[in-house]
Design brief:
membrane; 21 helices; five-stranded antiparallel sheet; Beta-Lactamase; transferase; alpha+beta; flat; transmembrane; 3 domains; phosphoprotein; Heat Shock Protein 90
Amino acid sequence: MIHSTKRTDVRERLRRRGTFQWIHALVVVLSIGLTLFAWNYSRQQLQSKIQIQFDREVERVVGLVIERMQKYEEALLAAAAFLEVDEREIEKDRWRNYVDQIDIGERYPGINGLGVVLAVPRDQHDSFVKTQRRMHPEFRIYPEHDQPTLWPITQIVPEGPNAAAIGLDMAHEDNRREAATKARDTGLSQVTGPIILVQDEQRTPGFLFFTPFYELDFDSKAELRSVEERQQHFQGLVYAPFLVRNLMRGTMEKEKRSLGIRIRDGSDVLFDEHNESEPAFDPDPMLTKEVTIPVYGRLWTFDVWSDLSFRRNATSSQPQTILWAGLLIDSLLIGMFLSISRASRRALKMADEMTRGLQSVSLATKANRIGIWDYNPVDGSLQWDDAMFDLYGAQRENFSGAFDAWNERVHPDDREQASAAVEKALLGDTNLDIMFRVIHPDGSIRYLGGQAVVFRDESGKAVRMLGANTDLTEQMKMVDERRHHLREIARANVDLKRSNDELAQFAYVASHDLQAPLRRIVSLSDLLREELGDSLSGDAKMFMGQIESSAVSMRDLIRDLLSYSHIESEKRPLVRCDVQSIVTAAVEQLSEVIAECDGDVKCDALPSVEADPQQLSQLFQNLIGNSLKYRGDSPARVHVSGETFDDRIEYTVADNGIGIAPEHRGRVFGVFKRLHAESEYQGNGIGLAICKRIVDRLGGRIWIDDSKLGGAAFHISIPINVDSEVSDSR
């Protein structure tokens, strides 16, 4: 199967094979080069990862500060709205009650208090002071200044730590006056420049947060569009004093971040952790970043440095490990090349032993249509047995017994590869183990496998190659079909998992982001109902009820969507669950509904199962609640039972309700699938979808059948041995 080669050429090749040649040196050099490349690439990837981690941490820290300021603004806006709709004089007790109700200490950590600043013309100074002294006997406006309008603080809660601020005139100092004036003229919340609060004994940097409120004419419904209109109707400011150190402490504790922060307002430093007294201070930080953002009329600059905890978390020995491992592999390569010559002599001895073994199985190969061939690399002669001629579709009389005779029958696309494999085996680089195609005289193509051993003399020269060919055509067809099916299955699984992950993430994020405006709607609705009270007309009360009802429906829908998306995302471990106790607890949760409809829920002894306890409780509570909701005219009757089979446990929740028609039983488990109008039965059509998703995670199934009680029967089948890996992948 190979061209004859002169004896001197073969011997020279074998001699070179036993020495360290240039090709070996090239392999070692290339290996060292790849090692250095991998080391440098790993080092760059590590640096990129550290940079991404630092940037993400910076965004989080700055985002938390801005988010906290936005929450503070919400408190100020709500207080301003309270004062605008309440036309009575701002009294001390009423203001304290309002601030106590919104609980600023708990809801808005970092805030020093919530107060009121009123605009007072200078010519009304005496009468105004006299009025205020009814609430604050020692009230006075200070310090003196020459501005035409006075802006004194009249209320502040809590008053104890902020008592020194009562009567302080915002107009006496540029930072306070400019921010207050800007808030009045724009109608927007404003932050002052850095100031020292009169109530701060430590004299640390602070600022005031202003939100204006106006005298509104609700009858005319006029909007204050111009600066002149806002100045004309301006009453005062709701304000909150802040110490920047308290703001940062309320926003994010130092132990929960690995960065040091300095906040500047222009050239003034508001907050600074870049000093050696800080526990995790790094004098030579790995990374730094400066971020400037607008904050309610001011520009704050955040100078962010990595600290020692960041350095510890970012340290990795991976690049050094790759470098040393690569150098070790290079050393092993050199040792391997040096051992090749010794291995060739041992291979000759093993080949002789294998020859005797091959000769002993000659009869067996004939019976199994295994073709045997014998090649002499010295004179180039090739011998085939009868099975070889059948495999190649050739006739003995037309076979010349040389390399070309075999080569002509190999598929043109496989000739070079097959010849190179034979040459490589003769040189001792590897054993012969190849697969190639041959073309029969009728044009059909067959796949053949070829294996052989090489026999050598004492000098290491190849003197014989003995091998066998087998027909692999049918096996290759099966392998190709299997490979095709596996690729299709793998592609479908990847697409399905990506689609499910994206849908679950979308449902969670969308539902989560909808809650903030919903809470605002409910809060404002409650505030309007409380403030306006009996002054609401009949239509207004109806509209207010519709707003509250819609908000509740939206809240329930969001909660159910979050529950639906959490089923897969939480992936809590499965444990052995006492189903009897879980169903009993579910019935207790529904006790008010059961009493309201004069219902009766009976429960047989239930077998335990491997599951998520929280999700299993949600499953039975949804199914029992569904039976109570769709109860019809008769009092609701629900029966929960369970039965153990060889490979599964089956639970049944049966009722005497209105039932479900057979043609609708499959689609009721879809998201938002309802069979009745909301005016007939309340709900959002997601409860049964949650049930199906819970059962799917356990590798089970859920279906609906007719109930012996006259309504519907929900059947849940769960395998006895739930594969945790399967459940986690669902």
